[in-house]
Amino acid sequence: MKRQRSSTDDINEVPRKRIIFKRNASVLEEQRKKQILDEANKILQSLFATQQNKPTFCISKPSEIPIKPRNKGKGVDNNSINDNTINSEVQAYHMLYLHKMKRATDYKHRSERCNTKRGKISDYLEAYLYYVDAFYNQIQAHKNGYHYEEFFNPETFFKSIHNWVRGMDKKLTGSLKYLHAIIVKMHYDIKHERCMNKRENKELSRDEFKATVKSLKNCEEKIGEAFSLFDEAKELLSNKNLEFSGNCLDDARIVARENVNNWRVKQGVNFISL
Q1: Domain of 223?
Q2: pLDDT value at position 144?
Q3: Residue 153, SS3 per DSSP
Q4: How far apart are CA 111 and CA 121, in angstroms?
Q5: Which sign does the torsion angle of CA 208, 210, 213, 219 carry?
Q6: CB burial class (10 A; 0-12, 13-18, 19+) of residue 265?
Q7: What's the CA gap between 141 and 87, in Å, rounded?
Q8: Distance (Å, rounded) from C-alpha 187 to C-alpha 246?
Q9: Where are the stretches annotated Disordered (predicted)?
Q10: Do 195 and 119 reside in the same domain of the chain?
Q11: Is 195 exposed, middle or buried (0-12, 13-18, 19+ CB in 10 A)?
């Protein structure tokens, strides 16, 4: 006897049990990290050419990136930026900023454990370049709409590295001071603008107004120091036509990377990437 085939209506009448998959919070976080980092790599591959001796923009390990909850009023305002592509680009730059910061810290710590002076300097220089890359990506995220309460300022670390390379290769020292000057000026230009806007607030208390004026004065002093550093860099690089603006940061990073690599070759340093 042939079995009668169920109709579509019969099948639809059978109650279906909803299957719920419970996922571990850490697994979901890792998946979210990977998704964001994949987006970052995809976007930045189209934005930048990764050639030899140029900064790379690939993030290798999602577990290295700490993701913090986005609070209201911080980060990207979804109401003002509705384009998913723009949101992804902003997030990509921010994630690269975090990644470069961690890499710089890793090289700095490895340098502190190194037993040879040349090896120590080599890792310190790598940390220097990664801190520059971190600042660059934070600025790019900021320009594209990411809100930061504070901006990364590596000038204290930069000053300590100048002491390590003093009296060494002029091109190396000059290119490092050039980067230092550009970053300090960009950092305090942003801070100065924010202080100026804050000073216009008529609801500021007397103490707040005084603190703002003091911050403005500090910004002006720091910008003056940046110009002095720039003059030193011009002399060391023997380039009187050297330009001084945030637009020069791209080329300055490439030149500094080349000079660091050339120094390693001359010193016989076998640099191993982390």
Answers
A1: 165-269
A2: 85
A3: coil
A4: 7
A5: negative
A6: exposed
A7: 10
A8: 10
A9: 60-82
A10: no
A11: buried
Give the pLDDT of residue 196. Answer: 85
Residue 77 lies in a domain: no
- Report whether pLDDT(16) > 70: no
What single-letter DSSP state applies at residue 241?
Answer: T
* Chain centroid offset of residue 217 CA: 27
pLDDT at site 208 = 83
How many domains is the chain partitioned into structurally?
Answer: 2
Residue-wise pLDDT for 60-100, tens only, equals: 554 444 444 444 344 444 444 445 555 777 888 898 999 99
Can you spell out the DSSP letters for 34-63?
A: HHHHHHHHHHHHHH----TTS-------GG
Residues 88 and 202 in one domain: no
Q: Quote the CA–CA distance of 230 and 185 in Å, as a whole number.
A: 10
Nearest to 260 by CA among 180, 174, 194: 174
Per-residue b or e along 73-108, where b marks 16 or more CB atoms closer than 10 Å to that residue's CB? eebbeeeebeeeeebebbbbbbbbbbbbbbbbebbb
Domain end, chosen from 152, 186, 208, is at 152
Same domain, 119 and 183: no
Which of 152, 179, 205 is at the close of a domain?
A: 152
Given a cut of 60, whether residue 189 has pLDDT beyond it is yes
86: tokens are: 């723009």
How many CB atoms lie under 10 A from the CB of residue 232? 17
pLDDT tens-digit readout, 199-223: 777 677 888 888 888 989 999 999 9
- CA dihedral (59, 154, 91, 42) positive or negative: negative
Whether the per-residue pLDDT at 139 is higher than 70: the answer is yes
Chain mean pLDDT for the chain:
78
